[in-house]
Every structure is written in structure tokens, then in C-alpha cells.
Amino acid sequence: MPSRAPSTQQAVLAAAALLLVVHGLGRFIFTPLLPLLVSDGQFSTGQGASLATWNYIGYLLGALIAIRWHRPSQIHRSVPLALAVHCLSLIGLSLTNDLPSITALRLANGISNGLVFVMVPALVMEWLAARQRINLSGLIYLGVGAGLLISGLLANPPGLSLTAAERWWPAALLSLPLAAWGGWVMLRLETEATRRTHASPQAGRHSPLLDKQTRPLFWAYAGAGLGYILPMTFLPMIASIQLGNAHPMVHQSWLIVACTTLPAAWLWNHLGQRFGDQRALLLNYALQLASVVSALLLSGVWGVVLCSLLMGSSFLGAVLLTQRLGRNLQPHQGPRLSAALIALYSVTQLIGPWLAHEWLNRGGTLPETLWLGAGALVWSLFWTWRTPSAGGQSGTHDASQAPIKTNIA
């Protein structure tokens, strides 16, 4: 294994590529593939929704496992294993039309996604912090925005005639080289992190994840998961209810979300550096709230367009700002804290559609379910306001000054 450490740009690019692989080619691609696979007769719409749920459950399980496997030696083994599971699950999906097999493969893919989505950004964040470059950490999430766009293209690539299971081949083939290169770079980062931690007298010592500083951040992030998942799940359907099935905005709303997500990581990374992560997070939740309120109060095209623009440009920023702010509050256990936050986010994502289902069963309408999201985002704003801002300084500045000996404790 090469002893020379990668450059900071290479580390950030590799991490972004891995998020593109597991989130874009593993999770997000199922959204544009779903109507095509249903049309091919591989499964029904209801069965497709069940498959999506199993993938979300796998994502939650992966995040929970990452809370336990947070030490450098464990990350060292887990990231390559998770990437292998991701690639094998996509190859498996490309070869079978058997519904139980597809269900198991989507569950496995979700677990690998949860592991990589927690471990890779946390590892790179610690590595950057040791080099006083944690201000670059938010750029890792550019891979998520790129994944939305690329997954839309690969779901129905021009010039290729694919049906049923064959539709997974483009994502599987692209995943292989990106996962191999990104995993190789992560192993080189992990070697240095392991040496630093083994030399640290603080290694293995932990304070509670929930204390008076981090508790408000956890409460806020719980609301964020519920607030964002409702419009991100139901916006095209709400557009069809309000505008009619034939209206172009039914399909274009997701394209707007994807396009605005691409620069979002850079934007919120910059705002966090300039104003501090806590203040930037307050602005972020305010924009998400405005997004949901737009869909509720502005009937017609404008409500859908504003919701798509504001949500697409903001939801990813909440992830990177919360992760960095959490590490700033507890720099000695960044990966463990990151895993716990993402697990909580995953739970509230699962709760959101269930609450919407219950509301519909009680005679409510689908657009009305967005009031649940609006209330959740008000909750997030309140608890973010109560979250410490690390002495009033920028989260990026403080975190970059954290002692090296406390990294990945």
C-alpha cells in the first residue's frame, strides 16, 4: 500500500465519488427507475414502494452499525466491505427478476449506503481537520448532487434498449471503477488516522453522545428528517394533484430539485465558513420552511417551482452543516456522533411517509400532509437556535483547530 498520503483535493474528490456511487447509483437511481421497472412488469407500484422502504431500513441499519464500528481499524475494514456489497448488490439486481431476491438485494444495498455515507465523510473530515482544512469538508457532498443528475441519465440511457433487470447494468458498471479508486484513497487516509489514534492517550475514551451541548442539535436534526422527506417524496404527486397528470411540472419538479442540489454543497460550505455553521444552519432551515410553505400556500405552478428550487438548494446543506457542527461540539468522537445523527435522521425519514399515510386514512389530502413538514422545520429552527455555536466562532474554524490527538477517538 502506498505510504504517501493523498492531496486534500484528491481526498475530497474520492469521498465525493463514493457518495455518488452509494447514494446516486444505489439509492437515488431507484426513483427514476421505478416507473420503468413497473412498466416492464418486473413488479407493481405497491411492491416498488415496499422495495424503497426496505432500502431505507437498510440505510438505517448501516448507520446504526456505524455507531458501533467507529474506530479507525473498524472503518478500515468496513468501507471496502460496504463498497463490495454495493457493487455486488447492483450486479445481482442486473441479473434477477425474482421479487424476494430483489428485496434482499435492496436491503443489502441500503446497509452499504448507510455505512459509507457515515464513515467516509467522517473519516475525511477528521483527516482534513488534522491539516487545518476542515473548511473543505462540505464539498464531499457534491457527490450527492452529481449523483442525482447522473442517476437520472443512467436510468434510461439514450441509445440503449434495456428492460427489467437489465436496467441496473449502467449503474453497476459505473460503480465498479469509482468504488475501487475511492476505496483505495480511503485506505491511504485510514492508515494515517490509525497511527495518530494509536499514539493518542485519549483513544477509546468517550463522553456521552447526548449532553447539554449536543442534545439541541439532535432534536433539530430529528425535525429536519421529517421536514425534508415529505416534499422530497410527494412533490411530483402533489404537482399532479394540483396541476393535472399531463402538466410538464409533474416530471420537471424532480429535475429542478436535482439541478439545484448540485451546487448546494459548495454554497452551504461557503456560508458555513463565512457566518459560522450554526447561523448558516438557521438560514438553511428557514429556507426549507419557506419551501414547504410555498407548496402549501401558493397554488399552481409557482408553488411547485418554489418548493423545488428552495428544497433542492437547501436540504443537503443541513446534512453537511449539522455534521460539522456536531464534530465541533464533540471533536473527540466525530465518526460516532456522525453515525448517531444520520441514524436519527433515517428514523424520522421513515416516520414521515407513515404519518402521511395515517393522515390520508383519516380523510386528509396529500398536499395537507406538508403541514407536518412545516411544523417539523419550525421545531428544527427552534432547537438550532438553542444549539451552541462553539463560542460564537465559525464551526469550521474551531474544528480545524481541534488537537490532532483527539481525532477519531
TrEMBL record:
Pfam families: MFS_4. Coiled coil: none annotated. GO terms for cellular component: plasma membrane. InterPro entries: MFS_4, MFS_trans_sf. The keyword Manganese does not apply. The chain crosses the membrane at residues 48-67, 79-95, 107-129, 136-156, 168-187, 218-239, 251-268, 280-297, 303-325, 337-357, 369-385. Keywords: Membrane, Transmembrane, Transmembrane helix. PANTHER family: PTHR23537, SUGAR TRANSPORTER (PTHR23537:SF1). This is MFS transporter. It comes from Halopseudomonas oceani. The lineage of its organism: Bacteria, Pseudomonadati, Pseudomonadota, Gammaproteobacteria, Pseudomonadales.
